[in-house]
Amino acid sequence: MACVVSAPTFRLEAVKSRGAACGARSGSCIVMANSPVNFLDFSVRHSGLDSLAVRRSFLCHHSFSQKVSYRVRAAAVTASPTFLDNAEERKLLAEKYGFMQIGKPLPDNITMKDIMDTLPKKLFEIDDMKAWRSVLISVTSYALGIFMIAKAPWYLLPLAWAWTGTAITGFFVIGHDCAHKAFSRNKLVEDIVGTLAFLPLIYPYEPWRFKHDRHHAKTNMLVPYYTFHFSFLIFAFLILDSLETEHLQELYSSSLSIHNRFSNNIIDDYYVLSEDTAWHPVMRDEFESSPLMRKAIIYGYGPLKTWMSITHWLIWHFNLKKFRPAEIGRVKTSLACVFAFMAIGWPLIIYKTGITGWIKFWLMPWLGYHFWMSTFTMVHHTAPHIPFKTSDEWNAAQAQLNGTVHCNYPRWIEILCHDINVHIPHHISSRIPSYNLREAHKVLQDNWGEYLNEGNWNWRLMKTILTVCHVYDHERYYVPFDEIAPDESYPIQFLKETMPDYA
Q1: Measured distance CA(365)–CA(359) in Å, rounded
Q2: What stretches of 110-184 show up as alpha helix (H) in DSSP?
Q3: How many domains does the chain have?
Q4: Whole-prediction pTM
Q5: What is the distance between the alpha carbons of residues 191 and 199, in angstroms, rounded to a whole number?
Q6: How far is CA 494 from CA 296, 302, 306, 487, 501, in A?
Q7: Which residues cross the membrane (predicted)?
Q8: Which of 368, 440, 462, 395 is nearest to 164 (CA)?
Q9: Which residues contact 464 (CB under 8 A, 6 or more apart)?
Q10: Is 48 a domain residue?
Q11: Among 190, 220, 353, 486, which one is least packed by beta carbons within 10 Å?
Q12: Can you list the positions of beta strands (E) in 289-445?
């Protein structure tokens, strides 16, 4: 693929929060910079010193808003791999990856309207009794879990935590329905129930809702990479303050390298998801940016991937700068609710049960919830044959019907999680209530069954995701870490050797 892109221009507004600490006068300034290096050099000129420490200090004491402009003059489109057109090849791949079925490519002329027209209107109807029954199931199953934790001997605590973590995942699904206007006909009721359902998870409801809506609008869509890398660079400098100087220098140098390649129009791999998600592939230059970052990515997308939603939760839902001005008011309200819950709920738990009680009754079930949050999300959208596409080649019907996976889990998990695993109809229309998803999926099977990706949750499926689906490649979709950096990919080799291969 070849593109010609004009050099990006950044408009950076730096507002002093602690000017004296930086050795610079207070006030505000506007900087025009055509690269991260020029931007960092500004901090040196502004402080009058020439050191990496001052660069870091400047970043740590300022807040930034970033606008990026670029023009794409040409882009190539990659067709679906021909092997997916062959039924026998798809059958072999399904067995290899741990799927029951890999769907054939959806024709380009099929639209979302064509698919929507096959769904009966009754599937979109809200049933108050069924909605509140879901709440009753989640509340009672969670209460039972807390009782089991309180009464279980130490050797049965993992089972109690597994049950309770699964039960509070049901809280998330209820809030999920509220966010999609699929719980009640009353918007205020949905906002209240959604906020309350998310509170035990320490999840701010409105920030999640805004980000999640964009995920549905642009599932598996890629945009130019430079925007992401610059944001990541700033984040790295702000968060990794304890790193040694040479590690900071690695990040600084990698930004210069990427800027130079971008300016020279060598941008074959410079794409990321239009919205950050928990299942996005790693970009090659991100992976190769520094040894420290490479190690973190290998662990995060390997053995720790079933808890990667914690990182997503932390980075994407508490920063006001990630939201539009019209969204800020509702975001602040949600954040206030979450912080109030933490300020009141956590001390009460600790007062009654001690720190060990907080770990037993809240932290461990919360980690169980994030296991399911991460697992459901990556299984829904991650497979070696599911592509990520640039906006000019992206097709909504293909992304939602062909690019989403239906996965069956043990029935007790599906009941406690309100059928969130029945995910393809949810991507066809997010207005379908969770209690109608199974019937909607049956309709899709009857009308579009040959195009669906379906599987049972099994070791081989998870092993494929954790050991194969790593670095983005435009032609192959994914390249495993151990193919690019075999000497550093021992966590991936460990998973390959120890994870069972049962399907």
Answers
A1: 9
A2: 112-116, 128-151, 157-179
A3: 1
A4: 0.76
A5: 12
A6: 16, 10, 16, 13, 14
A7: 131-150, 156-176, 225-243, 331-349
A8: 368
A9: 96, 97, 98, 383, 384
A10: yes
A11: 486
A12: 389-390, 405-408
**Could you tell me if residue 31 is inside a domain?**
yes
Q: Would you give the DSSP letter of residue 362?
A: I
- Is the Cβ–Cβ distance between 202 and 338 less than 8 Å? yes
In whole angstroms, give the CA distance from residue 84 to residue 80: 7
Query: CA-to-CA distance for 22 and 13, rounded, in angstroms?
Result: 16
Of 224, 221, 248, 220, the residue nearest 236 (C-alpha)? 248
Tens digits of residue pLDDT in 256-311: 554 454 444 333 444 544 455 556 888 888 898 889 989 999 999 999 999 999 98
Are the CB atoms for 182 and 431 separated by under 8 Å? yes
Give the type of residue at 184.
S
Angle of helix 459-468 relative to helix 490-498, nearest 10 degrees, comes to 170
For the chain, the residue count is 503
| Side-chain half-sphere CA neighbours of 358 within 13 A | 11
- Residue 454 and residue 205 in contact, taking contact as beta carbons nearer than 8 Å: no
Asked whether residue 24 is domain-assigned, the answer is yes
Domain residues for the domain of 22 are 9-74+223-299
Q: Which of 18, 16, 17, 50 is nearest to 30 (CA)?
A: 16
Angle, helices 128-151/157-179, rounded to nearest 10 degrees: 160
Q: What are phi and psi of 229, to 5 degrees?
A: -65, -40
Partners of 62 in beta bridges: 16
- Interatomic CA distance for residues 272 and 219, integer angstroms: 12
Q: How confident is the model over 178-235, as pLDDT tens digits?
A: 999 999 999 999 999 999 999 999 999 999 999 888 778 888 887 654 434 444 444 4
The residue written with tokens 């420290």 in the block is 292
